[in-house]
Amino acid sequence: MKCFRSTSINTIEKVFTEGIVPSCGRNSRLIGDNRKKVFFSEGFHGTIALLIDFNIVYNKIKKNQMQLSDEELYSKVINSKNIREYLGEGVYLTFESENVVNENNEVDGFTSKKINPNLLEVAMIVNIDDSTFSYSRFDVVHFMMAQTNYEDIRYSGIKWPNTLLHERHNKKSEEEKIRINQSKIRQYYEENEELINKFRMNQYKLIYIPLNVFVNEIYVNKVKPTKFQKVLTKEN
Questions:
Q1: Residue 80, CB-side half-sphere exposure with 13 Å CA sphere
Q2: Conformation bin of residue 80: beta by default, left when phi > 0, alpha when psi is -120 to 50
């Protein structure tokens, strides 16, 4: 199974050199997770569920419905227009689940071990009609949503540690937790319907580019779509 990790494009060359090293980054601190791990999600379902959870936390902090002790992060959330602006440009790095030991679950997955760069690929969306492409993490996750019914995502967790909301959620039955999370996923689908529906068209494909090819032939050289056909490797 493919695992996916959301990563800022500004760190891509460092990842290419060093791999993914266990750390506690800005996104982990936003949801109160201070562990130094390599975080990721398994498959489309896990990746979608984690993005929804993160989006909910972001919106609750922005609306002052949740507290955030980190003043720098709080300022970034409050002063950003939306979650896309807050996160900035980024990609989904991918790797095979057989190459890591997932120490948690499919949504909030993590490992204590470094992931070497030779194991990594970058997820990209390509329009096979005109060879244009995107490596935006939001385009990739919206493509996943276009291929996935929210009813099929059976996720009972909630990643808001040390909050009353987290405690109340954990008192519910597993089926009730799943139903609540599915309603939140449905809401995101409805609010972003236009962005998601675009990727229901057959000309869009998800492909995986080896990290070294992405860095050397796409990111560094700002490759044009006409050259893209030379580096396209694996289709989903």
A1: 17
A2: beta
Beta strands 38-42 and 90-96: pairing type?
A: unpaired
Q: What is the CA radius of gyration of the chain?
A: 18
Quick one: pLDDT at residue 230?
A: 41
Q: How far apart are CA 92 and CA 122, in angstroms?
A: 6
What type of residue sits at position 61? I
pTM, whole model, 2 decimals? 0.86
Residue the block writes with tokens 């990290």: 211
Burial of 73 (0-12, 13-18, 19+ CB in 10 A): middle
Q: Where do the DSSP E strands lie in 9-130?
A: 38-42, 90-96, 109-111, 121-127
- Amino acid identity of residue 160, one-letter, is W
Taking phi over 0 as left and psi of -120 to 50 as alpha, with beta for the rest, 206 belongs to: beta
pLDDT tens per residue, range 71-109: 888 888 899 999 999 999 999 999 999 999 999 889 989
